[in-house]
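DM from R.C. (forwarded with permission)

"hey, sorry to bug you on a friday — could you get me a structure for this? deadline for the figure draft is monday and I only need the backbone to look sensible"
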Amino acid sequence: MKYNPNEVEAKWQKYWAENQTFAASNNSEKPKHYVLDMFPYPSGAGLHVGHPLGYIASDVYARYKRHQGFNVLHPMGYDSFGLPAEQYAIQTGQRPEDTTRVNIDGGFDKEGNAIAGYRKQLDKIGFSFDWAREVRTSNPDYYKHTQWIFIQLFNSWYNKNSDKAEDISTLISIFEKEGNATVNAVCDDNIENFSAVEWNAFAKEQQEKILLQYRLTYLAETEVNWCPGLGTVLANDEIVNGVSERGGYAVIRKKMTQWSMRISAYAERLLLGLNDIDWSESIKESQRNWIGKSVGAMVSFNVIANEVKQSHVIDVFTTRPDTIFGVTFMTLAPEHELVAQITTAEQKAAVEAYIEKTAKRSERERMADVKTISGVFTGAYAEHPFTKESIPVWIGDYVLAGYGTGAVMAVPCGDERDYAFANFFKGQNGMQEIKNIFDKDISEAAFGAKEGFQLVDSDFLNGMNYKEATKKVIEELEKLNQGKGKTNYRLRDAVFSRQRYWGEPFPVYYVNGLPQMIDAKHLPIILPEVEKYLPTEDGLPPLGNAVVWAWDSVNNKVVETSLVDNTTIFPLELNTMPGWAGSSFYWMRYMDPHNENEFASKEALKYWESVDLYIGGNEHATGHLLYSRFWNKFLKDKGFAPTEEPFKKLINQGMILGMSAFVYRLEGTNTFISKNKIEGQNVQPIHTDVNFVNASDELDIEKFKNFREDYKNAEFILDDNGKYIVGREVEKMSKSKYNVVTPDTICEEYGADTLRLYEMFLGPLEQAKPWNTAGISGVFGFLKKLCRLYFDDNGLIVTDEEPTKDNLKSLHKTIKKVADDIENFSFNTSVSQFMICVNELSAQGCHSRSILEPLAVVISPYAPHIAEELWSLLGNSGSIATVPFPVFEPKHLVESSKEYPVSFNGKMRFTIELPLDLTKEKIEEIIMKDERTIKQLDGRTPNKVIIVPGKIINLVG
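My reply, with the result:
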């Protein structure tokens, strides 16, 4: 009888599927435990060995919790909308729906290439997912609920008094009775006050426009990251080094009318909620920084009239109102709406040129670039609130339109960036001398501290410190009606529109340019067919190409676009929702995935509540994790979500890095020289496929020559032993680097249990670590050694013999270690303990059922297939998956005896095992009577006998 992993794993995967072994119940007397992975985007490239790392860890934990008697929900699905599928559709002419389905279920692409399919790859690794709960965000039965949540957001406003979202009808009721003067809401800036009489007299269209200024999702003209190459708006986290993460296309800043979400309404709650969840401090800090709470004052500077007749005010948020008498210039973001209005004719050309240049840099790039100093004087001046002095107004790209008010009151003596800007433009028209308001030297650098100074040359603030001056200046600003104390957040409202095809359609049609929600009973509004996935010739999003994309408000259905009459048939929204829409509530959909009427029933939501353990990459710290918390809090406000926070505990798995291989081509030739011969040569390193290289770093030359047409006639300079040795380097695993190792290959050769154990063995879960296939064979060898405890070539060799003390010690040491490790997510040290245990039991010749049966359960979370097989061979029926985890008994680790080293004058001569409960006198008596002692003393009497019970015995003299 031999261990055949392919046969064993296929058998048990089939058993699990047929018996729905891992199905979770929404109505169980067992305690619940919800274990979730960040679900994958299904690309055509499929899984590489880095992808399953977090899934294996969560699976080990989920299986362990089942052994502990929990009703475990461990689902899986696909984040299947997104830009990659759309770009692939543009390049190949295939429907994103078709390519996405093939990527998930397997099949063949347009070129006839076989696609393994995510589902089959995941199944081969033996995950305990409840596949009956699978979701795909691109399925209409899923995004129906995404559309429904959007409608709820549209029909809600944020009441600061109750500190939660409320139905828009409650706001309308206030308007009808009191107007808006007393409304304390998160809303647009500069809303005009109106009375109840005025509100009731407004036309319906005017009322709708006003309500849009309060709704939690709203239309507004905003600065966005526009990518002409992709024809869409990009989120900040989709831009790397100023270009699109996908494709490397240029990105510019552009104003567009977009749907936005008032995530800013939840800024304080998002901050406070971080105190109640078990996440790493680094992720929490990332979110705190992104939210960016700051306490200070809003200050209004009046623009001094020049040729512009209108009066303008520049509002500035500052965390240092105490430094107001040190203001020597102001800086506006180039995109600030006042720039065009206040710039003088003399400066217009320079300002416009600067704005055009700045539009090509992303906000992230501008924030990161602290060395480059650039700006232009607008020619305009503002008036200091207290001194009434003229302050020149500049524009500079270090100020961002979306942060604060997009304007800075520059105090060079107290801020390094203002200091550098002032010195760079020193002596130019529009740049005044730096004014020092601190009793400190600023000849070399600004003084930015909030303590250890007194203010000087600051009028009524002279002699005050930071706290005193801040309080006083706010009081004086309020008297002038030119400022007030304020808490500000860096967090901006989230742009929720994408000029893409492959995304959730908005349930929105337009009447006279104003958005109307489609009644929820008519959802889903299904993505229409289009001929082209590119924007239209006149620049509309791809849905502008749809032939059937208009809303019949009488028959409540989507009809042909040509029928639009703006009377009963109206145009539908052409943008689609962003990728984060579907992933912002999916954990709740898993709770009740087949519910057609609700995203989840109240009963299911009450039972599962929230995710107990969430595992995924830290790249989602300020994207998905922030948006999902926002939606969860909103749904809690509206009485749907049962908890304030969606994810109790979060673990970020590290990245598995690839071990790339390089060949070395002599410059200007088609000759490749072995790594050991390249010294002194002018060579070009080129990535080669790691599958052409063996464990000794030797290249299979024939495979390499057949890799590409231009390599067919390549020549090779080999080592003296006739081999071509490649270079090695650890890099990110990527198809472009040809260093991808697929789990399928490992599973076929060594089995999924080997892959699972090896990935856990590589190192701590949260650290990055390089993949080295050479280590796989050792883990495979361990599994074969494990099997030899249970059976040999002739069959089962397990006996009913009583276990020895050492057998029990080895087992219970392992039970304790593995249980502790799983609870602490230290999976790598568990694998080490398994190896130690099997080595010990093998050396002990243990084949006792009372040891090997619980051992199979202990190893089951890590190597479930072989555990199931061993459990079955031992004569047990059913799956091992829910068998209780063995109970650790401390008594088996308590030592009853000690092997003492016996020394003579400090030199150890022999050992003796004695009970630990012996007294010093009894130990001495036994030692003195021992034949080996008598022989060593040779008739002498020792001067001293030193005995430390449990440690040493030493005879001196």
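R.C.: lifesaver. The CA atoms of residues 174 and 532 lie 47 Å apart.
me: no worries. The longest strand covers residues 217-227.
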